[in-house]
Amino acid sequence: MEKAEILKNYYNTDIDPTVDSLNNVITLCENFQTGGGDKLLYAIEMRNWKLVQINALIEYITSARQRMERELMRLKSYKDEFNASFATDHNDYYNTVAAILKHMRSHTAAYKEILKKTCTTKHPDKKTCQRFNIKQKSIHKESVLAHGTYEKSIFNINDPSIPEEVRTLFSELQAFFNNEKECFNICKEIITQENTIKSDPKMSNYLLNKYRDDARKRLKSTIRLISDDVVEMLQDINPAYKLYKNSSSEELFAQKEFHKHNTDEMDHFCIIEMASAKQKFNLETDEIKNWGTDAAKISKIRNVVAHFDELLPSNFSHKDMGKYIYFFCKWALPTNIKQAHAYFLKHYHGKHKPSQYAAVNAHSKEWHKDNEFERSIAAMNEK
Fold first, then answer.
1. pLDDT tens digit string along 206-248?
2. Where are the chain's structural domains?
3. How far apart are the first and last CA of the chain?
């Protein structure tokens, strides 16, 4: 127990959550592919490892590498997910790196253990550490496999005189560090992509609006339960909403605040927007779900539904009802015809019997841009 405390006291195994630290790990992994054989031979001699210890390390590294390969697949999925959301539970640049490292902790533990086992300096006892106030040293500076000093062996790692177990250990370490390099390169990709989004106000705003759309779907039932008092309270305490109200533009807010707020804060931000718009413009829940808080657009859609019969051609036949409902849906909500149709059924009170969804959707191939029905809609909305 005392020895474990001394090891922990003397060597720092942390990977600092910075891009420079990620680059250092990548460089270490690359360098091992070319000069790792000599470093490993020196470490084995320095530590006086026996074959039984080498075999145990082979087994340990092989198991860690298999875990890493599985984790690599998860990390690739995380790469696609992390920057696709405006909100994150890791609110700043520092924590972005830390969050990524957290997803890799099972195999970074093995990485740290390998470096710790190959450090050059002998550990002083606990009293000596305390007496001389010895500071922790980083395994990334002290390990022979990293930047620690070593002497080049007179034998090559592939020399026939080198035990097969040693060559196997080297091969496993090469595969391990190669996978580790791939993992850390993915980390860099995530951070680079995040910085690209932060530098692009249009992309940031797109992701903000995407978050709003997703929130409307998730929180549509919650909106019905929110009282005016709760909305006012959220307005007073929500940091995202306060910054939004004081921002000179929507895009500037999105650019500055991308990945600065957690999901709870952004959900409350969306609730404030939806509830406020619902109260101010008397919007219905399905309208907010379909078109957000764009009151001007919703007003036009309401107007079209209210005057739908007037927009039909003079030679209208009921057999074409499905066609014109489809044209309306394509104009009102082109990404979701089914939801637009449901809205039409709920709000249409004209003299014609509306067609069901299957009959409406059957006219999809008849739709084309600049059709006469949509020109009639445009003309009516200009009045």
1. 999 999 989 988 887 787 778 878 888 999 999 999 999 999 9
2. 2-198, 201-283, 301-382
3. 84
